[in-house]
Specification:
Distance between the termini: 66 Å
Shape: rod-shaped
Order of helices and strands: EEEEEEEEHEEEHHEEEEEE
Number of helices: 3
Strand content: 25-35%
Number of strands: 17
């Protein structure tokens, strides 16, 4: 039994129980801890280290000291070490299990922006040059840079969808073209390597922008884009090829 003092290394001991039955080895220094094995009365053990735990009455009186052996902890009240002092070093405190870093939830405003964008998918809206804006989808204009006359196509072009999303969600007018949306002084340009849900991803070259999409997290984005059909406003995987070096954070 050990009641005080200090020691430099592991020490031998012999287990003795009152009835001669086996002594339960515990996963922690308390009788309520999970049983992880047993050791026979009379068996020799190596006390690796010692720590304070639940007070136990045993063969050698009452003790709050627990001995760490190879499989777990046994009460020192059942261990003969030939000394009334500590015979092994103090057990190091177990390192706490690190808590997993939670996935940050999008802010209320970001959630509103994403919801507004998703609300326009699955409605059969087509890509329409000059179409859409703060009020929602509309017929387009003539003529697109590719020569399309979209006066009979009802839906959005890419910037028209973005303008609707931010106006509908936050009552924020970000402008009706990719030029103003990318250049706006009320937004913040962020390196695209730090893109976050709610950011706008722009495409183009130099200072010229040609397309915009909304990043919604998980490697996905929402855009209005050709081909001109009923799935033009859709969720798709992010394309970084051709993207501008900065995304715009307007939330």
């Amino acid at each position: 039994m050990v009641v005080g003092g200090g020691a430099a290394g592991a020490a031998p001991g012999t287990v003795h129980t009152k009835t001669g039955s086996a002594l339960t080895i515990r996963s922690a220094p308390t009788a309520a801890a999970k049983a992880v094995g047993s050791v026979k009365s009379g068996a020799k053990v190596t006390v690796i280290c010692q720590t304070t735990g639940q007070t136990v009455s045993g063969k050698y009186g009452r003790s709050a000291i627990w001995d760490k052996i190879s499989k777990g902890y046994i009460s020192d009240a059942y261990v003969y070490t030939g000394s009334d002092k500590r015979v092994a070093p103090t057990c190091a405190k177990p390192k706490p299990t690190p808590k997993p870093t939670p996935t940050p939830m999008p802010s209320t405003n970001v959630a509103k922006v994403i919801a507004a964008a998703k609300s326009q998918t699955g409605k059969g809206l087509t890509y329409s040059w000059g179409g859409g804006g703060k009020a929602g989808p509309s017929y387009g204009i003539c003529c697109s840079p590719s020569g399309y006359n979209d006066t009979h196509r009802y839906g959005y072009d890419c910037s028209g969808l973005m303008q609707y999303v931010f106006w509908h969600a936050l009552h924020k007018d970000i402008g009706g073209s990719t030029y103003y949306q990318y250049k706006t002084t009320k937004a913040h340009k962020i390196a695209r390597s730090k893109v976050a849900a709610g950011d706008m991803i722009f495409y183009g070259h130099g200072s010229t922008t040609t397309h915009v999409a909304l990043y919604i997290g998980g490697g996905k984005m929402i855009e209005a884009a050709p081909p001109r059909n009923k799935t033009s406003v859709h969720v798709t995987s992010v394309r970084w090829s051709g993207a501008m070096p900065y995304v715009v954070r307007a939330v």
